[in-house]
Specification:
Blueprint: H1 10-18, H2 26-36, E1 41-44, H3 51-62, E2 70-73, H4 77-91, E3 98-101, H5 107-115, E4 119-122, H6 124-132, E5 142-145, H7 148-153, H8 157-165, E6 172-177, H9 182-191, E7 196-199, E8 210-216, H10 222-233, E9 238-241, H11 245-257, E10 262-265, H12 271-282, E11 288-291, E12 306-309, H13 316-323, E13 333-339, H14 344-354, E14 359-361, H15 366-383, H16 388-397, H17 403-416, H18 433-441
Parallel strand pairs: 1-6, 1-7, 2-4, 2-5, 3-4, 5-6, 8-13, 8-14, 9-11, 9-12, 10-11, 12-13
Helix pairs in contact: 2-3, 3-4, 6-8
Keywords: ATP-binding, Helicase, Hydrolase, Nucleotide-binding
GO cellular component, one term: cytosol
Family: Belongs to the DEAD box helicase family.
Length: about 500
């Protein structure tokens, strides 16, 4: 099945194709036909399953262009911005305006946006303030509650009920929630009219496109393990989840000191700072976002390649929400969890709840990281198309150096990646030819003191090789009857041990 099967308007279909969406997700396949038919709907599905498009696309398809036809209520300002951005992306060829309403922003500015908006995306508190003060009067045809259980947890249930007293009774109402506690079921009975029910089963809770692994280390080794995994996996864009705001701030400072392009995201930051961090991350000016669960709620970025759980969350729903930040829009993703032996029971509880076994792997040692980078460099060189400027460079240098020396120096420069402007991918940015020739003439080894650049880091911290590969977090035998968690690398056997290990 494809999105063309829904027979959307031509302008909407164009934006879907431009966004790279091809095959609808399970929640979209089930929900969109009901919504297009005008039926009320209760959808139980976790973040990352494509809920925004599931309700956004059919609603956009039904809008006539009048003001405030659709109202979407979400729990947090971050989610409000994300949903608004997503709807703007899908509706840009329909000439529809979207207003985002949340606390901490100017009332005057938001009221002006609402005047010309076909879609309002709002948090409950600020929107209720506007209604109570009679600053707005809206009669939406479509009302959507997204992340209803999250709004319940945040104490917004009474606000939601009051908001509905201001809304017209003739409307199409949609409710989406990851879980269905009694309070949400009772709310659905009150505000919906003979709704259809859709549930994404436990087997569908985690995206099959996401590879899930875990690494066991001691508590004091979390930082070093994270750095080693980054060096080995070389993620293009990643989110790191921590349990507390304090952990987020500390880890952000640490990674920046190691040369990474990283920023923090948590609730104690000023709204402007949070918006700047999200904007930089979405535009790829930032490669790492370090966040708490609450701050990252609803964060919708389709090109996140990796999610790292610096700490395991306490429950399976948070885990599903976290890893759902990657593997979006049909792309592959990687979810990595760093686990201590004390957290092993928490890991087992999460595995049981989501119905998925995570693969146990060993943090790679320095020699493994080096070899992987050498292999990648070989592949880059073998597959690199010969450019005219490359021929010119060799011709200009061959009277001074023999071909082997030129090749060695070029390889050194490529390895350090200091010859590329702007981005670290070979052949994808303008080459600074003058700088390159100067570097070759001077020895081609200026990359040696650039080991802490954002990519190609190669550390031997404190003169020691913390050899996680020799015992640290070894793979456990799932067929074993023993419930003893795997040892961290403080339990490492002598180096002469001939045990079988899986390393990544």
């Amino acid at each position: 099945m494809t999105f063309k099967d829904f027979n959307f308007k031509e302008q909407l279909q164009k934006s879907i194709e431009e966004a790279g969406f091809k095959e609808p997700s399970p929640i979209q396949i089930e929900a969109i036909p009901y919504i297009l038919d005008g039926k009320d709907l209760v959808g139980q599905a976790h973040t990352g399953t494509g809920k925004t498009a599931a309700f956004g696309l059919p609603i956009l398809n039904k809008l006539s262009g009048k003001n405030a036809e659709a109202l979407i209520i979400v729990p947090t300002r971050e989610l409000a911005m994300q949903v608004s951005d997503e709807l703007y992306r899908f509706g840009k060829f329909l000439n529809l305006n979207t207003a985002t309403v949340y606390g901490g922003q100017s009332y005057t500015r938001q009221l002006k946006l609402i005047e010309n908006a076909s879609v309002i995306v709002a948090t409950p508190g600020r929107f209720l303030d506007l209604l109570r003060n009679e600053q707005i009067k809206v009669k939406p045809k479509f009302v959507i509650l997204d992340e209803a259980d999250e709004m319940l947890d945040m104490g917004f249930l009474d606000d939601i009920k009051e908001i509905f007293t201001y809304l017209p009774k003739e409307r199409q109402t949609l409710l989406f929630s990851a879980t269905m506690p009694v309070a949400i079921k009772n709310l659905a009975k009150t505000i919906l009219n003979e709704p259809e029910f859709i549930t994404i089963t436990k087997a569908d809770m985690t995206n099959s496109n996401i590879t899930q692994t875990f690494y066991v280390v001691d508590e004091r080794e979390r930082d070093d393990a994270l750095i080693r995994l980054f060096d080995y996996k070389n993620p293009k864009k990643s989110i790191i989840f921590c349990r507390t705001k304090k952990d987020v701030d500390r880890l952000s400072t640490f990674l920046v000191s190691q040369g990474f392009m990283a920023k923090a995201l948590h609730g104690d930051m000023e709204q402007k700072q949070r918006e700047e961090a999200i904007r930089a991350f979405k535009s790829s000016k930032l490669e790492i976002l370090i966040a708490t669960d609450v701050a990252a709620r609803g964060l919708d970025v389709n090109d996140v390649t990796h999610v790292f759980n610096y700490h395991l969350p306490f429950d399976s729903e948070s885990y599903v929400h976290r890893i759902g930040r990657t593997g979006r829009a049909g792309k592959d993703g990687v979810a990595v969890s760093i686990v201590t032996p004390h957290e092993f029971k928490t890991l087992q509880r999460i595995e049981k709840s989501i119905g998925t076994k995570l693969e146990s792997k060993v943090v790679p040692n320095i020699s493994t990281v080096k070899q992987k980078k050498i292999d990648e460099l070989k592949s880059d060189i073998i597959n690199q198309e010969v450019k005219d400027y490359a021929i010119d460079i060799v011709e200009s240098l061959k009277d001074e150096f023999d071909i082997s020396t030129i090749a060695f120096k070029l390889a050194s420069i490529i390895a350090s990646k200091t010859y590329v402007k702007g981005n670290n991918n070979i052949g994808k940015s303008e080459v600074d030819l003058q700088k390159l020739v100067e570097m070759i003439s001077k020895g081609g080894d200026r990359g040696d003191d650039r080991r802490r650049s954002s990519r190609g880091r190669d550390r031997n911290r404190g003169g020691r090789d913390r050899d996680y590969g020799n015992g640290g977090g070894r793979s456990r035998n799932r067929n074993s009857s023993s419930s003893r968690p795997p040892r961290s690398n403080t339990d490492r056997p002598p180096r002469s041990s001939n045990r079988s290990r899986k390393q990544d």
